[in-house]
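Notes from hallway chat w/ T.B., transcribed later so I don't forget. T.B. wanted the structure written out for a chain they're using in a teaching module, and asked if we could keep both sequence and structure tokens in one place. Agreed to drop them here.
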Amino acid sequence: MPGFFDAINTIEPPKEKAHTVTIAGQSIVVTLEKKLEVMRNGEDAYKWKSATEFVLKPKPKVGIQYPQLQKADKGYSFYDNDPYYPKDIIEEGFTWQTNSE
């Protein structure tokens, strides 16, 4: 096997793989850990901070408003004082209102 060892010595080591992500249409080379983080969160969850650095967008705060039972000039009367079973509409009854802050 005269040519076998010569061929083994001329083999180049494997190249390092370049991990790229695309944020807002721009591609950038990142580390494997950063690529996995971007894949976990999704590329659309990031924005550019500078020309070479990107960060997570802040999550929108969900403000759930629950209706509350309040006294009103005209409102409901209830069977057995159970607010989920309205009986009649009367003067100075109760209504469900959502407070907007």
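Follow-up for T.B.: The radius of gyration is 32 Å. Might be a good example for the class.
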